[in-house]
Amino acid sequence: MIVVGAGILGASVAYHAARAGAGVTLVDAGQPGGGVTADSFAWIGASGVRRGPAAALRYTATAEYRRLEAEVPGLPVTWSGSLSWRRDGGAPDAGPGQTIVDAATAARLEPALQEPPEWAVWAPDDGAVDSVRVTERLAGAARTHGARVHPDTPVTAIRRDREGRIAGVETPAGLLPGTTVVLAAGVATAALGAQLGVHVPVEASPSPLFRFCAPAGLVRTVVNTEDFDLRQVAADRLIAAADSRECTLAAVRSTFRGAESVELLSTRIGPRPMPVDGEPIIGPVAEVPGLYVAVTHAAVTLAAAVGRLVARELVEGTVESALAGCRLDRF
Q1: Number of domains comprising the chain
Q2: Looking at CB atoms within 10 Å, which of 24, 202, 236, 312 has the fewest?
Q3: Which residue positions does the secretion signal occupy (predicted)?
Q4: What percent of the chain has pLDDT over 90?
Q5: pLDDT at position 49, please?
Q6: 104: Cβ–Cβ under 8 A, 6 or more apart, which residues?
Q7: Same domain? 257 vs 216
Q8: Please, which pLDDT band fits residue 34 given cuts at 50, 70 and 90?
Q9: CATH number for 56
Q10: Residue 301 near residue 63, CB atoms below 8 Å
Q11: Are 159 and 249 within one domain?
């Protein structure tokens, strides 16, 4: 099996497949976790999931990361919970795994809030990860289970044999042979599939990520408002997913006491892979025996679950019901 793309999703597939006993080669044009994975806000949340083709996957996200923590010791996951609110007043709806809390509870969860919201949604099981380090650990764990990892090795073409089955991938160093190819290359998946006449409807969606210097302990949970997704990633660092750096900085300073010293350190805009209907595209490609696609904009959140399920389908030959709504043939 050749997994093309060593972002967090590809690394998870490679790890789970190698752990299940498959011969795996993980190949990437850069370093593991060095692409759009590094630009993710990396919020891990299963709460509030109600509907959609990937609802079953999303609902298991936190439990799957708990399992992965046990399998790969030292995985950098922080279980802080998440707190969400809006300025429109009335009490919000709570989904599965969520609780409506009042201003006093919100202030206890986030002591630096200048004006705690009247109502907020608390998801105690939510968390976040260091997406690059998780990817590196997964690639390393895959290698421990016998996988070969080829960084800085772009795939230039996918090869088929005379019967039309997958035969491997071409790289500048030559052919890497394999009977199964998993395309987990983010936005590059579309171009690689097109070489085989396979249309994968995924486009690049700009994903801004802002890093700030900040006082220690300013933010305790994953905070979600109209203005930003915000969390503390180190004693003196915040990251935020939002649209405008100026508006985000102003919102952070006005939302938290003691935030006057918060300053912008950097801005990254990653080309997040976005399927045209917003839902994951995961599964075999019937027209090309041996080809399998795995691409989604929620790769960090779903990596643990998707990696395990894809490995089961490819190594054990199962058909996973949780992936039924994610197949390419829905388009």
Answers
A1: 2
A2: 236
A3: none
A4: 90
A5: 62
A6: 116
A7: yes
A8: very high
A9: 3.50.50.60
A10: no
A11: no
62 in Cβ contact with 82 (< 8 Å): no
Phi, psi values for residue 127, rounded to 5°: -160, -165
* Separation of alpha carbons 240 and 228, rounded Å: 6
Domain that includes residue 196, residue range: 2-75+129-201+276-330
CATH of the domain at 249: 3.30.9.10
Rounded to whole angstroms, the Cα distance separating 310 from 291 reads 12
* 267 and 135 within one domain: no
pLDDT at 47 over 70: no
Same domain, 284 and 267: no
Burial readout 224-236 (b: 16 or more C-beta within 10 A, e: otherwise):
bbebbbbbbbeee
Decide if 18 contacts 145 (C-beta within 8 A).
yes
Among residues 77, 63, 74, the alpha carbon closest in space to that of 231 is found at: 77
Q: What is each CA distance from 44 to 85, 106, 251, 259, 322, in whole angstroms? A: 18, 20, 23, 25, 18
Contact assessment for residue 14 and residue 193, using Cβ atoms and an 8 Å cutoff = no
Q: Is the per-residue pLDDT at 89 higher than 80? A: no
Tokens of 126: 């939510």
SS3 assignment, position 313? helix
Q: Of the candidates 236, 245, 234, 237, which has an alpha carbon nearest to the alpha carbon of residue 210?
A: 245
Asked if 154 and 236 sit in the same domain, the reply is no
Residue of higher predicted confidence among 157 and 48: 157
206-222 pLDDT, tens digit each: 989 999 999 999 999 99
pLDDT, position 92: 76
Q: How many residues does the chain have?
A: 331
